[in-house]
Structure formats: C-alpha cells, structure tokens
C-alpha cells in the first residue's frame, strides 16, 4: 500500500469518566460494543487492523466488497466492527468470528455477517488528516464515505449534551455501551486517551463460588461470581478482579473458611471435574485465553458480594466487575437474575435515525 497513513496505526483511545461532559466544544457519539478496527483502502486492496495492530481482514471477508463500494479509492478510516441482530448488537456472535479454520470463517460470514461503523477519517487521497481538528475530519468523513444500509455505516454524532444523554438511556437496549465524547478541536493522536467514555454502571449482589489465585500465589487474583436462575441453579456469570496487593491478601484470609470441603458438593463440579451449569464452565479455555492457566478453586457458595458492572451480555457480565463490598446481610439463595436491570430493547434503526 502507498497511503499517507501507513499501517499499523495505534487508535486514539478514551478514558473513563463518571458522567457526560458538558462544558462546550464536545462531539458526542454512541459507544459501540464491537471490535475496534482501522480500515486501509488503496485501490482494490482493503486491509483491516485491530486495536492491537493485528490483521483482522481474513476473519471478515464479507466486509471487503462493501468497503470498496463505500470508501474513497485511497483512504484510512477508524471505526468499529459489530454484528447487528434484531435484538441489537451481539458481541458473543462477533467473538465467534475469530476462528483459525477458513471453512468456519466463510460459513459464519454468511450466517452472522458483520457491519462496519465508521467514526473517523485519518487519511484521504494524499492527505494525512490526523493533524486536523475532529470537526473537519467529521465533515470530510460524511462527504467521502457512501454509507447507506448495512453493512457500512457512519456513527451518529451530536454537539448537544441533552441528545447524548438521551442516547445513553435509550440506546442501551440496542446493545450500545454508553457515550463517547470528543473535543471538536482535537487532532487525532495515536495511542493517547484523549477522548472520554461514559459507560453504564450498576451493582448486583452475587454469590462467591470460587477463586483464582494471583500469579504470585500470595492472594486472590479474582473471585468467581454466580447468580441463581428461576429454578435455583447457580450459574457462573463472571469475575471480580483488579485488586491491589493488600486487598488480595485480605480477600484470601476472608474466604479461607470457604475452601474446606468446597469440592464435595459444589454446583459447578460433577464427578470431581468442573461442570458449569448451562454449558458455562469456569476456567474453560477459549480463543481469547490461549494457553493461559485458568484453573480455579471452588469455594462453598455461602458468601455474597456486591459488585459494580457496566453491561450484561446474555446471561453473564460482559466485562470484569469491581468489588464494592461484602453483603453479610444477604442470603446466597436470594442472589438471582431477577435483581438485574434489563434495558428496554431498542431497534438499531433508531440509532441511525432510520
């Protein structure tokens, strides 16, 4: 390729904030829950790179022709790869697209086709647009990219904080992750956290069903969390982690009494081997974990913690949760899915205003 912005590109990132900023000069966009991707087009050649500057092109063959049809002949575009369904964005289906087998890649390209949502233009023709202000890059993006129906779109954007707050509340049911705020006067600075992201935050009371030791062996690396379904079955729903050294050691002392005899009647263990209810097995390897050691130790499911989470994906927490406090006043049997706030579904067409 011969472009003014050559791969790899480290995308500009966002830092977390508790609320949507509103002191003027901001451009607000929905926060998409997908794979960050930078698209490079030079004539007939189209390449997709991930946030970690790794190639994604082979995993999404169905996007190549639409990107050729939608992008200028020579351009570099920043955006997000998503899978859109009638229920909204589906990250689980998207994650299944990263597979080593070519036959599976081709089959899933038909069964669960991806879409690309563009939100920044880094190069056009012979011009490197990164030094220019976002407001100018946005105007060029809207004029240069021919985005219509799926699978190539341009993200909605607004300068009104009230509209952004409405998106934050209304579009969660479509699977959007929150709102991103960007200064209209800012240049595009690779790898820097110059944007602001505001994500949904909630708390839930969960059963502590197991632990993973920290890599130094001196404390708890993560707590395995569970919730009961309407039949009383305890499901593994995620983990709480990111503890400092003192907290790791304190947590290990806290759960020490729960280690004794835990494997004898643990709901996630059958015949001495892990067996997660509903097919969700704590510690199971995946394409994301590679060869990492995900072994875990059962704890008698007798204690409850309150955790903060941002997004529910199906029947589990989408991201790692944050430990808020122990809840000695809660009975483990009362920790059910019913307590979780489920966003009202919204059709993705509403997000794009069509």
CATH architecture name of the largest domain: 2-Layer Sandwich
Morphology: elongated
Mean pLDDT: 89
Got a strand count?
A: 22
Name the helix and strand elements from N-terminus to C-terminus, one letter apiece. Answer: EEEEHEEEHHEEHEHEEEEEHEEEEEEEH
Mind telling me the CATH class of the largest domain? Alpha Beta
Unreliable residue stretches: 274-281, 284-291
What is the compact description of this entry?
The protein has 354 residues and is of the alpha+beta class. The chain has helices at 64-70, 91-95, 102-111, 134-144, 161-170, 245-255, 348-351; strands at 13-16, 26-31, 35-42, 45-50, 74-82, 84-85, 88-89, 115-124, 127-128, 152-154, 178-183, 193-199, 202-213, 220-228, 234-241, 269-270, 273-274, 297-298, 304-309, 312-313, 316-317, 322-326.
Task: List the SSEs and their pairings.
Blueprint: E1 13-16, E2 26-31, E3 35-42, E4 45-50, H1 64-70, E5 74-82, E6 84-85, E7 88-89, H2 91-95, H3 102-111, E8 115-124, E9 127-128, H4 134-144, E10 152-154, H5 161-170, E11 178-183, E12 193-199, E13 202-213, E14 220-228, E15 234-241, H6 245-255, E16 269-270, E17 273-274, E18 297-298, E19 304-309, E20 312-313, E21 316-317, E22 322-326, H7 348-351
Parallel strand pairs: 1-12, 8-10
Antiparallel strand pairs: 2-11, 3-4, 3-5, 5-8, 6-7, 8-9, 11-12, 13-14, 13-18, 13-19, 14-15, 16-17, 19-22, 20-21
């Amino acid at each position: 390729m011969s472009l003014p912005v050559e791969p790899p590109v480290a995308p500009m990132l966002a830092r977390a904030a508790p609320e949507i900023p509103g002191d003027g000069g901001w451009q607000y966009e929905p926060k998409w829950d997908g794979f960050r991707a930078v698209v490079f087009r030079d004539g007939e050649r189209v390449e997709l790179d991930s946030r970690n500057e790794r190639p994604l092109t082979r995993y999404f063959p169905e996007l190549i022709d639409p990107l050729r049809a939608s992008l200028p002949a020579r351009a570099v575009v920043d955006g997000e790869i998503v899978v859109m369904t009638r229920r909204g964005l589906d990250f689980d289906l998207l994650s299944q697209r990263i597979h080593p087998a070519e036959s599976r890649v081709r089959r899933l390209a038909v069964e669960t086709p991806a879409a690309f949502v563009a939100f920044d233009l880094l190069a056009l023709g012979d011009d490197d647009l990164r030094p220019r202000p976002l407001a100018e890059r946005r105007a060029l993006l809207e004029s240069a990219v021919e985005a219509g129906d799926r699978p190539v779109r341009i993200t909605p954007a607004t300068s009104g904080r009230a509209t952004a707050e409405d998106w934050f509340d209304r579009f969660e049911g479509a699977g959007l992750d929150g709102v991103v705020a960007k200064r209209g006067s800012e240049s595009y600075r690779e790898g820097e956290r110059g944007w602001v992201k505001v994500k949904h935050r909630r708390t839930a009371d969960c059963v502590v069903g197991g632990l993973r030791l920290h890599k130094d062996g001196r404390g708890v690396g993560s707590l395995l969390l569970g919730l009961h379904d309407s039949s009383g079955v305890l499901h593994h729903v995620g983990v709480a982690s990111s503890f400092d050294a003192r907290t790791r050691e304190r947590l290990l002392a806290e759960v020490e009494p729960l280690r004794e005899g835990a494997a004898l009647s643990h709901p996630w263990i059958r015949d001495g081997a892990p067996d997660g209810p509903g097919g969700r097995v704590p510690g199971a390897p995946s394409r994301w974990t590679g060869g990492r050691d995900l072994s875990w130790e059962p704890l008698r499911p007798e204690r409850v913690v309150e955790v903060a989470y941002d997004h529910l994906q199906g029947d589990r927490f989408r991201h790692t949760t944050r430990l808020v406090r122990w809840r000695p006043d809660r009975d483990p049997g009362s920790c059910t899915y019913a307590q979780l706030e489920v966003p009202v579904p919204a059709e993705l067409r509403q997000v794009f205003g069509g």
